[in-house]
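User: Second chain of the day. Same drill as before.
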Amino acid sequence: MLIGGYAHWRARQGPLYWRAFTAAALGLAGAASSFLFHGLSSLVHPPGPWLRDPVMVLGAACCAALFVLVNAILIALAERAARPGESWPGAFRPGATRDFEGLLVNAAGLCAGVLVTIACTFSWAMLVVALPPVILLQRSLLHQQLRAAAQSDPKTGLLNAVAWQRDAERWIRRARRLSVPAAILLVDIDHFKRVNDTYGHLAGDELLAATASTLGQHVRACDVLGRFGGEEFVAVLPGAGQQEACHIAERLRGRVRDIAVQPRGATAADDTVTVTVSIGVAALGVDGEDLFELLAAADAALYRAKKSGRDRVCTLPPGAGPSDPLR
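Assistant: Same format as last time:
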């Protein structure tokens, strides 16, 4: 409770009613875990300190787990009420990047609560020694969680444009310094506006997420993938020349063609939405010498793919610049 209350006090963001609900959720979770522990203690009646009784130690761990569970359920119920159209799994994890980090923070809170409780059973003075490092640990984990959230696109879970550009610039500088190849892919979903207009923006968001997941599964482990904005995705391919980059782009294009999303509420098979992508490829040393030039060349190559009929991979012809992609 002390750790949760401290974290709540530190996170003074959002409207007052949400902070009040968070405090109430912490209080209810603490009351539930305390009620369970005292009930177990009255049933077991340990002859000595409860730490020497395996049943009570296990009960204390279960109480700590109950605290985390009740708090998570209450917060999920509030998120569900705030977003009536969202599925239950989404209510428990509003952001795609929150899964592992949230689990890690909850696990740290669980372990910290058990450690602080054990320390306090020996002496309340131990609280002064035990609590500061525990708070620092949880703050560190929360910082990592918030940092990951700040770098991620909420709809797809990929790097957002700012975070991707920072990583891409580092890879391009490294490639130039070591004189190794690198390439940029600019991926655009074909006729995405038509999906939004026909099936609604929720279906469009599902299609974005499905496309991002497919791209993420079929790029190489070393590639850096991000959402560039709207229906565009971008990837930097370290160590890939123009030919290899085109092969990777063709593989991605083929995998995306297998995507089939059924809009919510649709039951007929003909309501299944399929998707294709157009991809522009730009290679370091061929189409540009820095990230800005490569992005301009990839954008021009993407324009060429769109004008050539979509659902294809294009590069700039030899000697053509970003200003004349159809040359």
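Residues 5-14, 85-99 have pLDDT under 50 and may be disordered.

User: Great, on to the next one.
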